[in-house]
Amino acid sequence: MVHGVEPGNQQRLWYATTRECGVGDPGHESLCSSTTCPMCNHIRCRFDIGHYGGRYGRLAQAFFFITRADLGIQVSPASSKSHLYSRSLIGSQWTALLLDSVVVGNPQAVAADDFESSIPSSGFDSIVRSESTTEQEFILYHSDAVRPLYLVLYQVPASGSI
Ligand SMILES: [Zn+2]
Prior knowledge:
This protein has 162 residues and is α/β, with parallel strands linked by helices. The chain has a single domain, classed as Phosphoenolpyruvate Carboxykinase, domain 3. Helix content is 17%, strand content 26%. The protein is built from 4 helices and 9 strands, in the order E-E-H-H-H-E-H-E-E-E-E-E-E. The strands form 3 sheets. A 4-stranded mixed sheet has the order 3-8-7-6. Strands 1-5-9 form a 3-stranded antiparallel sheet. A hairpin with a 7-residue loop joins strand 7 and strand 8. The chain binds zinc ion. The site of zinc ion has 10 residues, from helix 1.
């Protein structure tokens, strides 16, 4: 074990995805019943790892522009980075992020251009792209490595009002 590093290199990292519903919005404290809501599925730990890969394999990546990042769980220590992936399909005024507990393990560093097309080599558990902390992103490929801790909601001021 490396001094100062949690077992398994456990870290708290931000995750964002699409909300089909208003989970987390004021008055919406329950998960929705949709089986395709990415946010509720993530909170339930129903991850989509290998979904496309299992069904379509490499053909899917060639024809549907599905990247390796789509086959894994993409998280970041920078909330500003994850913010870019947060979407609401119901037009909520609230932006949602999840703070996940993530077992990063031994991450393999890759160049930014290769980040979304890489899979970990033997001996590595995840992929990391890191020029700076604000740009750092990990891709995890094991659903057991990610557990949601907190759902954080915030509003972004209208542009020009800051
Ligand atoms: Zn939902």
